[in-house]
């Protein structure tokens, strides 16, 4: 890195190390004995002020990451995907379960973390939330414990992939996280322990933008937005965009949106077609990928009763192509991360 550093180079340096602007300020002030603030970093990154040579030299000479890295910035770390939408009933859990299944079928080591107190993913995969809560083997206990994260997971689907179950006790975590310093970074720190053990971690979010969801966004590399093709689901997406922008600016600059997934689509309903058109316009304006819509199908309801992913029971279920598109997009990103870290 040259001593004359541009604002764009500084921004890339910071983001590559998983730092927000305040973390960079703290590191520089400690290393150089200065009193820089976030406004100064912003002026440097936008080119409004020239970056001092002492700052450029300090960054050039730094030999280790100086921020709190996102999961995949660590060596052999898994790529972390979350599925979020503040509205419930949009197919988040069905998406997470089936994408996890497809990735495992490609020989990938996958962990699905149920971050929803309703424990939908846990139940979907045939695991009893109450039983796991009594055994203290849920995400609630993993977040509170000093034990390794892997001690709380359980194999599902005949060992195809692993699950970290949830239970209703996780509802209290929202309040607990608010009371703890840096509470919304606990999940991120826990997932960092999984480097070398999994290729992908999939986080199934609760259906609201509380502290739990913010914790998930702080920990994720990629965000998928499943949305039912109806107006209420569509209306929540702009607010989610605002939350993502705040997370990227202050905590997790590596977070990217993988795309938008229309779900429960019925081509015979005029409303569904209209909402799909609006989703296409939204994706285009935000330069996002719009995945092929998942049509309504009874297979997924039946699969919950069987405790299996729908595609494990019927690989040709409606929406199979959509979930395959998502799995392939993740595999491409995973290979890119591997090549980048080599």
UniProtKB/TrEMBL annotation:
Pfam families in UniProt: AAA_31
Domain AAA: 81-257
CDD domains for this protein: HTH_XRE (cd00093), ParAB_family (cd02042)
InterPro entries, per the entry: AAA_dom, Cro/C1-type_HTH, DNA_Partitioning_ATPase, Lambda_DNA-bd_dom_sf, P-loop_NTPase
Tree of life domain: Bacteria
Membrane-spanning residues: none
PANTHER family cross-referenced by the UniProt entry: P-LOOP CONTAINING NUCLEOSIDE TRIPHOSPHATE HYDROLASE, PARA FAMILY PROTEIN CT_582
Protein name, entry field: Chromosome partitioning protein
